[in-house]
Amino acid sequence: MPVEPIRKTNRLETNTKTLTFMWEEERSTDGSKWKFLEHKGPVLAPPYEPLPGHVRFFYDGKLLRLSAPAEEVATFFAKMLDHEYTTKEMFRKNFYKDWRKEMTSEEKSKITDINKCNFTEMSEYFKAQSEARKQMSKDEKLKIKEENERILQEYGFCVMDNHKERIGNFRIEPPGLFRGRGDHPKMGMLKRRIRPEDIIINCSKDSKHPKPPQGTRWKEVRHDNKVTWLVSWTENIQGSIKYIMLNPSSRIKGEKDWQKYETARRLKKCVERLRAQYREDWKSKEMRVRQRAVALYFIDKLALRAGNEKEEGETADTVGCCSLRVEHIKLYPKMDDQEYVVEFDFLGKDSIRYYNKMPVEKRVFKNLQLFLENKQPEDDLFDRLNTSILNKHLQELMDGLTAKVFRTYNASITLQQQLKELTTDESIPAKILSYNRANRAVAILCNHQRAAPKTFEKSMQNLQTKIDEKQKQLSATRKQLKGAKTEHKASHDDRSKKKAVQRIEEQLMKLQMQATDREENKQIALGTSKLNYLDPRISVAWVKKWDVPMEKIYNKTQREKFAWAIDMAEEDYEF
DNA sequence: TGCGTGACTTGCAAATACCATA
DNA sequence: TATGGTATTTGCAAGTCACGCA
């Protein structure tokens, strides 16, 4: 367990309800995460409501009335009909196979070809429903909102030790069709309905236990304070366990987050030593040491993920550093005016493409050539290495060090450097642009991409229109000001005109900054790094140093998640 | 040492809430 | 006062990493 740092200040948070210094409370050393835990259990998915009689399903052009279970699964497909998913062969095949399991024997004998199924009436019906929902009166909408709020109040909170905490996801996932990312072999399979009998409740013995719905029982009620989850169940697609856990604003998550950044800061202190070490290891006599050293170099330099091995055929084919294959890199002794260039091209987490060309040192290049010798494209690049070996090595180099700490460290240090480099003492919008650019540098490093928004072009146009209008307004107002001067109008009038010009100039600049920011951000996602990789104290310090309102950088949710950092960091904080 | 499993973090896209504008 | 565009929230899939067992 790393030693926790000492808080710098001791100011009271005046605007938060429950969180006063909880990140300072004593922690147990025996691995227990709480002493008392009480909650109301999960909110189950609403039961299936059969379709009204007028909504029909046709098979091979003929009307076919489906049994309720078969109909329910059919509606899952119908609801996705407009999505590209439903056109994919794998999706259709998996769906059809699972759908048949829900059919009566009569249905099974009648329905033999998914391509003869006509779901359009169902699809239209759901579209109409969602349209109707949009058209509801204000009153009706308000009612729904209030009901949701009531459920949130009842099920959305728990008591952990002395705090009332927000729960992250208190609803059980409803049944539906599994949508994997990328080329997932299980896409379209039926995600079955979770019943109370599937659910494990975790709470403290001396708490009021959540009650299962009338006539049902939980699979188990346990009292395990070595874990943080409140509810769990096993999902049927991969057989993995799903959990209900606390919101990021909670003590237990905040503390863990803080600890994560402290580990990264400890890496900062010894990273040069480690770099020297792996450079030395490039020369090692042992192949496994050289592979380890080159992999670590990639992880450090390119912020690659560790790359656990995956079960073939169970998930999409994606890789990280240790699982890179020969086919994922190309070596160029010379490329343009650079020497020893490595080209990376592979699908990473969530099947996001990683493409990069990087000149490396000769020694790395020579090692890579050696690793590639006598191998097929589908062979592992690092055949003497996996994440377990790598992490064991890292653990020996520094307590608590794992591959992902490098990502956290490099992300945070990059933000800090970039902020230092980019921020100038200009207007607030200019500072915000600098901040976003620093954030962007990190997102690019970590390969956090997004699909360009569908409305991107239009949105840029809209902004440009606004800019043009503002420009016109500015020149008009300037003209007026000139006119006023020549006519020797009252100086009072003159001054207010000057002010107006200034104001419009500011507005124009703000718009231009926005446009630049948006353009640069077209395919970059800032959220993930902001939420998971950037030590929030860097941002808090920056905000204080440059007098930028906190809410320009962190929205409400983010301020709640980072309450600990906001309380802790002063303007001189150094990561 | 390898492997399966459990707990927890990270990640993108879709859904929804919110707000400015016609 | 509806509309449409943006910001925020939610949903849940897909990673990482430690641990226990053979």
UniProtKB/TrEMBL annotation:
GO cellular component term, pick one: chromosome
Tell me a Gene Ontology molecular-function term this record carries.
DNA binding
Q: Where is this region: Disordered?
A: 471-499
Q: Could you tell me the EC number(s) of this protein?
A: 5.6.2.1
Q: Per the record's keyword annotation, is Nucleus included, yes or no?
A: yes
Q: Name one Pfam family in it.
A: Topoisom_I_N
What reaction gets catalysed by this protein? ATP-independent breakage of single-stranded DNA, followed by passage and rejoining
Per UniProt, subcellular location reads as: Nucleus
Ranges where the DNA topoisomerase I eukaryotic-type domain occurs: 177-547
Primary location group? nucleus
Kindly give the Gene3D superfamilies that the UniProt entry links to this protein: 1.10.132.10, DNA Topoisomerase I, domain 2 (2.170.11.10), Topoisomerase I, Chain A, domain 3 (3.90.15.10), Yeast DNA topoisomerase - domain 1 (1.10.10.41)
UniProt keywords, alphabetically: Biological rhythms, DNA-binding, Isomerase, Nucleus, Topoisomerase
List the catalytic residues.
533 (o-(3'-phospho-dna)-tyrosine intermediate)
Q: Which SMART domains does this UniProt record tie to the protein?
A: TOPEUc
Enzyme class label: isomerase
- Recorded protein name is DNA topoisomerase I
Annotated organism of origin: Oncorhynchus tshawytscha (Chinook salmon)
Q: Which gene encodes it?
A: TOP1
